[in-house]
Write a structure and sequence with these properties.
mainly alpha
Amino acid sequence: MSETPEREQSTRRTLARLNHAFKTMRPAKLLLFGYVLYIVIGWALLSLPFAQVDAIGALDNLFIATSAVSTTGLVTVDPGQSYTFFGELVILLLIQLGGLGYMTVGSFAVLTLQDRLGSARRQTTKAAFGLPDDISPASFIKSVVAFTLICEAVGAAVLFWFFTQAGVDDALWTAIFHAISAFCTAGFSLFSDSLMGFRDHAGVNIVISALSIFGAMGFLIIVDVWRTALGRKKWLGFTSKVIVRMTALMLAIGTLIIFVAEPTITPLPASERLLASFFQAMTAATTVGFNTHPIGTLAPAIIMVFFVLMIIGASPAGTGGGIKTTSLAALIGLVRSTIKGRDQIRFFKRRVPMDKLQNAAATLAYYMALLTLAMFLLLLTEQGAAFDVLMFEAISAMGTVGLSMGITGDLTDLGKLIVIVLMTAGRVGILTFGIALAAGDETREEEADNDLVL
């Protein structure tokens, strides 16, 4: 009996240390920890026997859980055929949690209970979404959750009508699943061929595209538009304007190139050809990962276009991946200003702050380093696969896109583990993932010591 108080004190001390560790943890590490925790919980739930139609290997369950939380959409087994309703529900909840974000879900729960956020949550939320100083993390989180639920509810209602008219089995559940998957840019589908059966269905294409674009453009724009509509701001912020213009530019250029240059789409009727071209450009640019046309049949030149669109990806504070449209804008400004000999880096006649430029350059550098390492390892583990197929898979995983040229299910166990790491990095954010894994910086004393001349 005398040991009980000692054990209680030891437990309290351990909990206090853990609480202190979480409060002092760098935002990047906290974000990575949160997403990994979601993945592990999802993995455990998907591994339950009643979650599966037939027995599924532990690694495949881990792959699906990671793909869902990272809102990627790459799959090694068919979700609609391999999992029971419970399993599909787990996948959908993981997609929703991953789409909203680790800090958003936790912080919304805190706000519901006590209507305020601690300093650690405020800092981590700002890091996760790249919030400017004039936007309150608490009000931003409330806006994010409300906008997400409204979009998904409206999208599900319209899709339910279309799926019912098309004679889809269990149309309500299918509509809900695809609406959430689209808005969260996850690309998970209950159809074995993704959305290829709806290639000529303008209604389904438009709804899925609208949900994907809203999710990919980011919650910052939604908050910005809302504040402008309420008269709190006179006009949209510069970042919002950049996101809208860059997204529109990517969609227009991608659609035009596919419409003109893809031989397997050319024979289609003009309206269906345009719809298919737009949808494939949209699915790569927003990193949603649905497809209405078989990716493996696309011409090498179009695959190259997909590389570019997937690497750039979506926008900050959105549900998509990639290096982000704002990073591309900053890098374009750097190149143009250097060529023109300007003493300041400018984009759309506005000066690009140095911290934004540093983040863009660091993101691209880390992205290329991680892609190079991943390709080296995949070429070792998947020796029978073509280089372009593996490159497509790696870029798709890092951008949380979910498109594949058909190799995902045939990856070796080591190959699947490599892709799992890439999907996790893509969801956390390429640069944030690098910061989370980085060692601590030098202390002030060490920096001073480096300046000494011996």
